[in-house]
Amino acid sequence: MNVNIFFAAVPNPDNRQLLSQKILQCEAKRSSQLKIDWSHLTDLHITLGYLSGVQDIDLRAIAQSFLFLNQTSKFLATIKDVRIFGNAIVLRMEPYQTFLGLFKKMKQQLQVTLQNKYQFKEHDRFDAHITIGRIQAPRTLTPPQKLQLCNIVAEQFANTTIVIQQVALMQRIPEHLLRNAKSAQYQALQGYNFK
């Protein structure tokens, strides 16, 4: 069976709680015309890279190959800005070079361990981000509503700094195992704690 997995930098529990509280403030201030599915507390992560079509038999080798990440030093990350991509409300993160460096190390290790069997999905530019919510019916969002939503989110999250002390190999929970739409959508398969 093939699965889709991804790697994510994970804020510490206190910082996840802080982000969740800020999301609640955004919910309280949003327009009643907008319906938003906000991210669950345990789903808050900084996306680093996706691997699609991974065979079950390779999961253990992939997880083991990234044990070197345990030697990474924890660091501070700051929310740079807010963007809306399609239906996703995302917080773009800094320091860009630190996140990009982590991604490059993982990419290189993956190539060595599994001889280029899998490749991280790459876009034109690497973009470390946290998805904090998804807009229902995003096509109905007018430019003024989009601007208002971005301003509300930016006001709550401006200059927020969080501690990054772990990277995790993660997977979306299969639909048939989800308790409900408001529950966590992702599960960690393997964590790598920073020193």
TrEMBL record:
SUPFAM superfamilies named in the record: LigT-like
Coiled-coil intervals: none
Keyword line: Hydrolase, Ligase
Record GO terms (molecular function): 2',3'-cyclic-nucleotide 3'-phosphodiesterase activity; ligase activity; RNA 2',3'-cyclic 3'-phosphodiesterase activity
Leader sequence segment: none
InterPro entries per the UniProt record, alphabetical: Cyclic_Pdiesterase (IPR009097), RNA_CPDase (IPR004175)
Protein name per UniProt: 2',5' RNA ligase family
Organism encoding this protein: Candidatus Berkiella cookevillensis
